Every structure is written in structure tokens, then in C-alpha cells.
Amino acid sequence: MDDPPTEAEIVALSSDHMQAAAAIRRVALWQRLPWLPDLHTPWEDEQYWRMHLLPNCTILGAAMGNRLIGVIAYGDNWIEQLYILPDFQGMGIGSLLLGCAKEEMGEIRLWTFQRNIGARAFYERHGFAAAEETDGADNEEREPDVLYHWRRLPELTPVLQPSDG
Predict the structure, then answer these.
(1) Buried residues in 22-48 as b, exposed as e (16+ CB within 10 A)
(2) Residue 126: CA atoms inside 13 Å, Cβ hemisphere, count?
(3) CA 159, CA 21: separation in Å to the nearest integer?
(4) Residue limits of the N-acetyltransferase domain (predicted)?
């Protein structure tokens, strides 16, 4: 059900992939949240990925064959972007990408829109808790959003009890 598909391969993305990464974000966001204002051109989206995210984040992609179907950008305890093409959602690809970020970071924060019920359920299934809700005044879409937080639980070391023998 939410198991990672065997065909998906996780790959590190380079500048050659930024146009495709920006396009995945654009398609996934506008198909799932059509009420959001379209504030940037595809070229501006690509430049954001190329000039801001690529130098400051780890950017991974999920690929099937030669097709990029999902992307994640993360670093400094933040997930900046996580998008899966709508036709490939619900197949475990987002879980696979999120798992890569969780392996590298012991604490993660991220923002999503309050009305993005699917994303909220996804993050909550993966142990994230809502930490703050806003009216959207501080994001460019002016859409109410929610800050999620996840923290890795500390490893428990078993305490050996002295034996009675």
C-alpha cells in the first residue's frame, strides 16, 4: 500500500535536473491545490531551484526509467520542497524520499498549506506534529499554512540489571 515501489530509484540531482524538478513541483502543486495563485513563470521556478535550492540543499529525485517522478530538497533541519507527480502519489515514493531526509537529519521542520489535507495526513503518518498555524500573511500566496515538526527519538540503551544468581 505505502511500500516503496521497486522500480523507483533515488538519485542525486544536479543543475541538469532543475528544469524537471521545478516542473514536478508546478504540476503537483497546481493539480492538488488549484486555488493557489500562480505567482511565477516556469522559468522563474527553475531559477529558484537552480540559484537558491541547489547551492543550499540536498536535492534528490525519484526516477522510474529515465523519468523523474518525484523530488525532495532539504537541509539545515528543513524540508524546503517535496513533490511527487500526481499519477505516482500513493505508491510510497514520497515515503522513500522523506526517509532519505530523516536518515540525514535528527530534526525536521517544514511548512505546508492548511488546506493541503493530503500532505498533512502524509506528514502526520510519518510522525510529524503540527507546531504552529498562521493566517498566511508571511507567505507569498497569502494562504493559511501550518508548520510541522519531527524529531528522531533518542536511541534507548538497555540497562543491565544485576542477576540474582
Answers:
(1) bbbbbebbeebbeeeeeeeeeeebbeb
(2) 24
(3) 47
(4) 8-154
Radius of gyration over every alpha carbon of the chain, rounded to an integer in angstroms: 18
Are β-strands 9-12 and 67-75 bridged in parallel, bridged antiparallel, or unpaired?
unpaired
What average pLDDT does this structure show over 43-66?
Answer: 96
Enter the DSSP assignment of 49: I
- Joined together, the cell numbers standing for residue 5 give 515501489
pLDDT, position 5: 45
Alpha carbon 41 to chain centroid distance? 22
Overall pTM > 0.90: no
Give pLDDT tens digits for 82-122. 999 999 999 999 999 999 999 999 999 999 999 999 999 99
The DSSP 8-state label assigned to residue 51 in this structure reads I
Distance CA 142, CA 135 (A): 8
CATH architecture of 9-151: 3-Layer(aba) Sandwich (3.40)
Nearest to 78 by CA among 149, 152, 133: 149
3-class SS of residue 24: helix
